[in-house]
Every structure is written in structure tokens, then in C-alpha cells.
Automatic annotation (TrEMBL):
Statement: the UniProt record of this protein carries the keyword Cell inner membrane: no
One Pfam match: GTP_EFTU
Molecular function as annotated in GO: translation elongation factor activity
Organism: Actinomadura algeriensis
Keyword rRNA-binding assigned: no
CDD domains: EF-G_bact, EFG_III, EFG_mtEFG1_IV, EFG_mtEFG_C
Positions of the Tr-type G domain: 21-300
Name this protein carries in UniProt: Elongation factor G
NCBIfam families referenced in this protein's UniProt entry, alphabetically: PRK12740.1-1 (NF009377), PRK12740.1-5 (NF009381), small_GTP (TIGR00231)
Record's keyword terms, sorted: Elongation factor, GTP-binding, Nucleotide-binding, Protein biosynthesis
Length: 722
């Protein structure tokens, strides 16, 4: 593509959008270590946005500034890095590449109009990247591929291109390929222009390609042209090309740009960014900027999610128009003890201005600790973030992204709209957190602050689910994985000053009778004045799984007055909640009240409640009490090559595999029934077994008897402190 020239701006000034057509919102997607953050640094430096590119190893990059990122030397948060090139504002959205932080990654895709898949020439393509490509394909997201680290010793550009074509399918084709020198890559050859872009001197110079590349150019150029023509709206191009006509390069470039913006063609580019042990020229950054500016869609060309009135009704038609009604979405929320809550907002329609009132609405995440809310709030200052640097802006129009201060109720995923006509946007897909982590406050002082701190974490992160389990008396954080849990616990301590300790997770068990038994409950006390008198005889029988509790009244002759029979049942129910052996609730029993005695003066409701409870404990002492464990129905989606491993593992977890079925794309869905005790850490184990390609869901099914060899161990654990 022709170089239209770049704009060099100062780091202290936020680039301005000259209109909806002059904005490009690009999410950088790829596995951890692929070089996304390093590429962002190179793009910022190439456009003069920053004076010098930072290094991940030194903790000096724009995108990674959180303490957790600096310590781990990898991104765990979505970060915005705006720059300007050729009169176009480019909002680079650097997303985490580790599966535990897929929530921020999907938020970045929501804010973007195109995705740039960053693939390492050293490491290739991982399972998460494959799944994200499929997700983008499902919603028609325009994509391009940039292959990084072509200058490293183990980097193989050609093999990586072949892997991309094999995994990503049709429409993936290189538009450049690197040239080699004695010390590594020295430049690129443009397949459409057939010109060499030489970087060996540190600056880009255009020249004729070395004759040794001519055969490679001809072969790859033919494949590229055929791919472009297949996506062209000019139906005569293919006939003209087949007949031998030399198609004008400008026409091919125009068709390529249209095909990319429409989501039907995926150009492959190459970059080399020198760092550490790999000194050398920066290669491919200018070419990447040209593709982003010329071929990636503007907000005008990308669809807007469905918008409906808050009170219900048919969807509203919304256009990307700065003069239209305000429709914006919070794609990321962060809280700071000193600054307060800051919301990263993508504006889809209208213009957001400081010190104006907007309507904040959020719905549909009650199960994760987010209350439905509709409230009007006044917008604080608007800024354009460059990493942790906040640069004040006067407004943010349709198609652009900015940060908003002082929206105290706004959470990730909320919609901002005009108070006079509030609307809500359809939520984006968010994975379920499936790793439970039990925590407890480290001290009384921490306990006092824990609730507020957790509330802020939940507002920031929709992939976190908070559960206060009344049965096990544990506070449980449902996380995406171990790294996610570590970051959350670390953030509680470093950001909010709350220390928590991890505890062994308790699975809520049940008790039931192992056979029929009779029980006597005798509550007779006389201590002067009004006494207590209640005697009852019961018979307990086990019911089938799921039978619950049945109470049968077989009293005859009024030996227990009618008004005290419900008291016996109430006492039984209270004791069932407390359990009769290991302290777990008692279920699946039928209790028959057969006989008893009462006193005309001393009998009372409380006396017969106590007698009922004692009778149940007395019956329990006569028969074995069985522990029941919860069993989940588990659905696993896995690549075909891992089916055997996953099925064997499920069986080893005392699971019963019910069946499997083939899914298009080389995957298999497996259905199984597995005890909850065996899948506490399945989110981690499945990821390891499947190399990141496996996903699963779980739903409670029923309770089943716990095997005898586990009963003693589990019962002992139930009496440990919470």
C-alpha cells in the first residue's frame, strides 16, 4: 500500500478525532507472549506519540502499568493507547493474552471495530487464539494478522503463515514477506506493488527486489490476487485476470481494503521490533499503520449492538452520529482509593461531554453480585488515557473511546444514554467463572473493610462471581482460573488494603438415613413454676433421592393434642437443618409421628419442638447415617485430539460419561455426571489437558451417597474452622 505519511504528535496531547470516518478502533488479540504490548510500543514510537519505546522486561511500557502486570511481566488488563497517523485517530486496545483474563479481552473486542491477531513466529497459534478467531467470525468482525518476532532465531515466517491458513481458513493471505540478510530480516517485499521496502539502514527505502525473490513473488502474488478477486464486487475481474490481463494495482488495493473492512479477507503482515538480545531495524510498523488506516473499517462501517428502551419495547435504530441521541457503553471499570471510579467508555452514538447528566443502566448479572440499576449521574472530567496517563479532552463523539470520572454507580457492561430516553445495549458474551476459591479475612480490621472492597472488585470485573455460601459459611470467589484468583487477592491487598487468606473449599453435603429406625423424644423439665412437658415417638424411613421430607401424622386418641402436632414437625425440620451426624442438612426421609404424651398444664409449643428434635437424634443413633454428595451434569467441549484424555480423566474423577457428539470444526461435546468434590479445580485441569482449547459448563443434578472410603475424611474436614 502507498505510504500516506504519518503524523508526529507530542506525548502530552491527546489525538483528536476529526469525525467518525477518521477513527479506527483496533483490538490487539493473541496469546500471552506473542508481542502485543511490544508492538503497541513500536506503533506509539513510530507516530511520535512517545519519545522512545519501553520494554516489558523493564516495566516501562505504556500498556502494562498495573502492579500485577509489572510483577508478572504480562498483561492482565485491557489498556487503551490512542495515536494519530495520516490524519486518522487510531485507538489501540491492548488485550490480555492469558485465558484467565478473557473478560477484558472480550470487552476490548466490544469496544473495537476490527481485530488485529498478533501471532508469534516463534510460538505459533494457541487454543485461545483459535477460539477467539471463531468468535470474531461469528459476529463478522474484520480481522488482519500480524506475525511478530520474525527476527528471532527460532522465528519462521513462512511456517507461521501456513499455520494461520490452516487454522483460520480461507481468506488468509500474506501481502508482504520478509527479505533476509546476514544478520536476519532486512525489509519487506510488497506482493501487490512488487517493490522491496528496505530497512537495513534504519530508514525505509524503496527499491527493486533482489532477483532471487522473483519466483517467490510471482507465486505468492498470484495467490494473493486470486484471493482479492474472489472478494471483489467487480464480477469481471476474475475473467480479465484469467485471460491474462494485467490488473491495475490501485484497483487491487482498493478491492483488498474493501474486502478487509467487510470482513471477508484477512491480510497477513510481518513485523520485527528489536529488543534485548535481538537488535536490528524496526520492520513492518509503517506498513501495519497503512493497513489500519486504509483497510480497517471506521465506526461508520461497523454495526452497532442492539439497543432497546430500558422499560422494554422494540429495538431502536441507532446510527454512528455525533449529533444523535447518546448511546455509550462502559467497557472497563477501575477503582482507585484516591481517584475513585474511572470508566472506559465507547461512544456509539451522540457526544459525551463533561458535567452533563447521563442515565446509567445495567441489567442481567444478578447471579454474579451485580444489582440491576437505573440511575441518573453527572459525568465528571473526560480524559483520553495513554496507559496510566490521563489527558483531558473537551468531548468524546460517536465512534471514539474515552475515560469518564465520577460515575459512582457505573459498572463494566453498563449503558450510558440520555436521561429523557434511557436505553440499554444488548450485553456481550461473558464466560462463566468456574474456579471456586474460598477466602476469609486475615484479621478483624480486614473483615470490616472486606465487603466494600469486594463490591468494587465485582463492579470492575464481570467475570468474577461473589458467593456467600450460607451452608458452608464460606465466602467464595468464583474466578476464571488460578492466575485470575491470584490477581484478585493481590489487588484486594495492594489497592484496597484488605488482606485475605485462602481456605479449603467446602462442598455442601447432605445426610440421610441408611435404614428405618424408631426414635423417642422426651423433653420433661420441672424447675418450679410452669414446667416443660413433651414426649413423642417417631418412625423414620429413608426416601429415594430427591424425595425431600415427608411428615405423617398417625396420632390417635389425642395423646398429643392437635395444636402440638405442628410443633413436633417444626422441631424435626429445625433438627434436619442442623443435621444429625456430621452437621450437614438431613434430606430424603419420611417421619411418622405415632405416639406421645402431653401434660394439661406443662405442655407447650417449645416443649414439643424440643421433643421432636430429640426423637430424630435418637432414631439417628440406631442406624447408619449416610453422607450424600452433590453431583453435577458437566458438558465439555473439546478438540477431537483430546477426547480420549478427557474421557479417561472424567472416569478417574468418579464421573459417568453419558455420551458424546461431534461438533463442526473438529470438536467433540462430552456429557457426563461428576461429583462436585472431584471438579473443584477442573477449570485448571481441563485447560492443561486440552492446551487451552477445552471449555465446560456445569449444573447441579442431584445428591448421591458418598463412597464409604471418603465418608470419614469428608466428615472430619467438615469440622475444621471456616
Amino acid at each position: 500500500m502507498a505510504d500516506k505519511g504519518g503524523h508526529t504528535g507530542g506525548a502530552g496531547r491527546a489525538p483528536e478525532a476529526g469525525g467518525c470516518d477518521k477513527v479506527r478502533n483496533v483490538a490487539l488479540v493473541g496469546h500471552s507472549g506473542a508481542g502485543k504490548t511490544t508492538l503497541v510500543e513500536a506503533l506509539l514510537a513510530a507516530t511520535g506519540t512517545i519519545q522512545r519505546a519501553g520494554r516489558v522486561e523493564d516495566g516501562t511500557t505504556v500498556s502494562d502499568f498495573d502492579e500485577a502486570e509489572l510483577r508478572r511481566q504480562r498483561s492482565v488488563n485491557l489498556a487503551l493507547a490512542p495515536l494519530e497517523h495520516a490524519g486518522v485517530k487510531i485507538n489501540l486496545i491492548d488485550t490480555p493474552g492469558y485465558a484467565d483474563f478473557v473478560g477484558d479481552l472480550r470487552a476490548g473486542l466490544r469496544a473495537a471495530d476490527a481485530a488485529l491477531f498478533v501471532i508469534s513466529a516463534v510460538d505459533g497459534i494457541d487454543g485461545l487464539t483459535r477460539m477467539l478467531w471463531d468468535e470474531c467470525a461469528a459476529v463478522g468482525m474484520p480481522r488482519a494478522v500480524v506475525i511478530t518476532k520474525i527476527d528471532q532465531q527460532r522465528g519462521d515466517y513462512d511456517d507461521t503463515v501456513l499455520a494461520c491458513q490452516d487454522v483460520f481458513g480461507e481468506g488468509v493471505a500474506p501481502v508482504y514477506f520478509p527479505t533476509d540478510g546476514d544478520g536476519g530480516p532486512t525489509g519487506l517485499i510488497g506482493l501487490l506493488t512488487q517493490r522491496c521496502l528496505d530497512y537495513s539502514t534504519g530508514r525505509r527505502t524503496e527499491c527493486e527486489p533482489d532477483p532471487r525473490y522473483l519466483e517467490q513473488i510471482a507465486e505468492q502474488r498470484a495467490a494473493l490476487i486470486e484471493g482479492i478477486i474472489q472478494e471483489s464486487e467487480d464480477e469481471t475481474l476474475m475473467d480479465r485476470y484469467v485471460s491474462g490481463e494485467d490488473i491495475d494495482v490501485k484497483a487491487l488495493i482498493a478491492d483488498l481494503e474493501t474486502a478487509v473492512a467487510r470482513g471477508g479477507f484477512y491480510p497477513v503482515l510481518a513485523t520485527a521490533v528489536p529488543h534485548g538480545d535481538h537488535p536490528g531495524p524496526v520492520i513492518g510498523v509503517q506498513e501495519l499503520l497503512e493497513v489500519i488506516v486504509q483497510a480497517f473499517p471506521s465506526p461508520l462501517e461497523h454495526g452497532i449492538p442492539t439497543v432497546t428502551p430500558v422499560g422494554g419495547g422494540p429495538p431502536r435504530k441507532v446510527a454512528c452520529d455525533p449529533e444523535g441521541p447518546l448511546v455509550a457503553e462502559v467497557v472497563k471499570t477501575t477503582s482507585d482509593p484516591y481517584v475513585g471510579r474511572v470508566s472506559l467508555v465507547r461512544v456509539f452514538s451522540g457526544t459525551l461531554r463533561p458535567d452533563t447528566v447521563v442515565h446509567v443502566s445495567g441489567h442481567g448479572l444478578e447471579d454474579r453480585g451485580h444489582e440491576d440499576h437505573d440511575v441518573d449521574e453527572r459525568v465528571g472530567a473526560l480524559t483520553s488515557p495513554l496507559g496510566k496517563t490521563q489527558r483531558t479532552v473537551a468531548s468524546c463523539g460517536a465512534g471514539d473511546v474515552c475515560a469518564v470520572a465520577k460515575l459512582t454507580r457505573a459498572e463494566t457492561g453498563d449503558t450510558l444514554s440520555d436521561p429523557g430516553s434511557p436505553v440499554i445495549m444488548a450485553p456481550w458474551s461473558m464466560p462463566d467463572p468456574l474456579l471456586p476459591v474460598a477466602v476469609r479475612a486475615h484479621s478483624k480490621a480486614d473483615e470490616d473493610k472486606l465487603g466494600q472492597a469486594l463490591g468494587r472488585l465485582v463492579a470492575e470485573d464481570p467475570t468474577l462471581r461473589l458467593e456467600n455460601n450460607s451452608e458452608t459459611r464460606q465466602l467464595v470467589l468464583w474466578c476464571m482460573g488460578e492466575a485470575h484468583a491470584e490477581v484478585l487477592i493481590e489487588r484486594l491487598h495492594t489497592r484496597y488494603g484488605v488482606a485475605v487468606d485462602r481456605a479449603e473449599l467446602r462442598v455442601p453435603l447432605r445426610e440421610t438415613f441408611g435404614g428405618s429406625a424408631k426414635g423417642l423424644g422426651r423433653h420433661v423439665k420441672q424447675s418450679g413454676g410452669h414446667g416443660q412437658y413433651g414426649i413423642c415417638h417417631i418412625e423414620v424411613e429413608p426416601l429415594p433421592s430427591g424425595g425431600g421430607f415427608e411428615f405423617v401424622d398417625k396420632i390417635v386418641g389425642g395423646v398429643i393434642p392437635r395444636q402440638f402436632v405442628p410443633s413436633v414437625e417444626k422441631g424435626l425440620r429445625h433438627q434436619m437443618e442442623r443435621g444429625v451426624s456430621a452437621g450437614y442438612p438431613l434430606v430424603d426421609v419420611r417421619v411418622t409421628l405415632r405416639d406421645g404424651k402431653a401434660h394439661s398444664v406443662d405442655s407447650s409449643d417449645m416443649a414439643f419442638q424440643a421433643a421432636g428434635a430429640q426423637a430424630l437424634k435418637d432414631a439417628a443413633a440406631a442406624v447408619p447415617i449416610l453422607l450424600l454428595e452433590p453431583v453435577d451434569e458437566v458438558d465439555v467441549l473439546i478438540a477431537d485430539e483430546h477426547v480420549g484424555t478427557v474421557m479417561s480423566d472424567l472416569t478417574a474423577r468418579r464421573g459417568r460419561v453419558l455420551g458424546s457428539r461431534a461438533i463442526p470444526g473438529g470438536r467433540t461435546a462430552i456429557k457426563a455426571e461428576v461429583p462436585q468434590l472431584e471438579i473443584v479445580r477442573y477449570a485448571i485441569d481441563l485447560r492443561s489437558m486440552s492446551h487451552g482449547t477445552g471449555t465446560f459448563s456445569r449444573a447441579f443434578l442431584r445428591y448421591e451417597p458418598l463412597p464409604s472410603h471418603l465418608t470419614e475424611k469428608v466428615a472430619a474436614a467438615s469440622h475444621q474452622p471456616a
